[in-house]
Amino acid sequence: MLKGRNAIITGARSGIGLATVRIFAQQGANCWAVVHREDDVFLDEIQTLQEENHVWIKPVYIDLSESESIKTGIKEIIKEKQPIDVLVNAAGIVSPNRLFSMTTMQYIRKVMDVNFFSILEIIQLVTRVMQRQRKGSIINIASIAADCEDTSQLEYATSKAALVCATKKLAREFGTMGIRVNAVSPGLTATKMVSEIEEDAMAKINSGLAMKRLGNPEEIARVIAFLASDQSSFINGENIKVDGGGFDLRLMVSNK
Amino acid sequence: MTDLEKYNTVFCESINVTEGQLAGLKYQGTELWDSVGHMTLIAALEDAFDIMFDTDDIIDFSSYEKGLEILKKYNAEF
After folding, report:
1. Which of B51, B55, B58, B61 would best serve as a mutation to test chain A binding (most A beta carbons within 10 A)?
2. Quick one: how far is CA A92 from the chain centroid?
3. Burial of A141 (C-beta count, 10 Å sphere; 0-12/13-18/19+)
């Protein structure tokens, strides 16, 4: 579906971002894999993916909490003067499961910076290229937390809700230029973040899930690949939930 | 071609005006220099001068003359 396409994928070090790099490579796409810092394990992984799939995957080091780092990193990509067909904003930080009353403003700002403002900044730069091309597909990774149906993690849920709203706004602004902007909202997914949840709590969560299991990152990445491809050429401004049918929040782990 | 000639050519082609209309021309002062036309003009100037404008400069680019001033920051010579 993606043969010969060039994609920028943030959060490429692990979880949904890394799964997206894998799926994109398997489908023939080249990737700029945006990660925070250099890492031998990651470099080995992308080397293998390149060789197996005959694509290029270039690591790009960006600190998403720093505007200057974002500008420098994205401008480096743009300077290569290659088409940028796809942007996947998969990087983000998840908050501890605690109440707003127990959360500092400094932390709330940090989450908004990384999960929302950094994405807007990247989109503002990348769409300069996509506007010239008169085409492109942007996929923002939001979360079912954006539905804001429970207490706790206010800053995380708010950042994702803002991202869903921005996705719809951007889809309208850029749709006229052939650029589609969509969001994917994963449910609980088996990533490193989720693996840190205690066993008892995890069992309780699983019991509340419609499919009695977590999603895996590849299941999310396949939807991202669909939205990146021409198979979804008339889908714009959508937020697609990939949560296996959802869960009953009353069974979620209680606040600490 | 001098930088000024390049600038004028890009301006005229991007927003469909004649060279005689350029002096004093302001953003939204002609039909095609709307927000979409503005981004088209910016993209064409970036291509022509091989630069990438900062967002603040895109916003400040409010007239033909202001554009000259901004482009000097990117080493254009007028």
Report:
1. B55
2. 7
3. buried
Contact yes or no for A132 and B55 at CB 8 A = no
Residue A93 binned pLDDT confidence (cut-offs 50, 70, 90): very high
Phi, psi of A137, rounded to the nearest 5 degrees = -135, 125
Check whether domain A6-251 has CATH 2.60.40.60, yes or no? no
Nearest CB neighbour to A131, from listed B43, B52, B55: B43
ipTM of the complex: 0.80
Reply yes or no on whether A107 is catalytic.
no
What is the average pLDDT across B49-76? 95
Task: Look at residue A252 in the predicted model and tell me its pLDDT.
Answer: 56
Q: Nearest-CA neighbor of A128 among A59, A79, A68, A61? A: A79
Query: Does the pLDDT of residue A166 top 80, yes or no?
Result: yes
Are A131 and B46 an interchain contact pair (Cβ–Cβ within 8 Å)?
A: no
Residue of B52, B53, B56, B74 to mutate, testing the A interface (most A Cβ within 10 Å of its Cβ): B52
- Looking at 1.20.120.1770, 1.10.1200.10, 1.20.58.90, 3.40.50.300, the CATH number of the domain B3-73 comes to 1.10.1200.10
Q: Which is the catalytic residue, given A32, A116, A156, A174?
A: A156
Q: Which two tokens stand for residue B10?
A: 């890009």
Using CA atoms, how far apart are residues A50 and A7, in angstroms rounded to an integer? Answer: 14
Q: Which of A78, A79, A131 sits opposite B39 (nearest CB)?
A: A131
- Residue A144's identity, in one-letter code, is I
pTM confidence score: 0.91
Contact A131 B52 (CB under 8 A): no
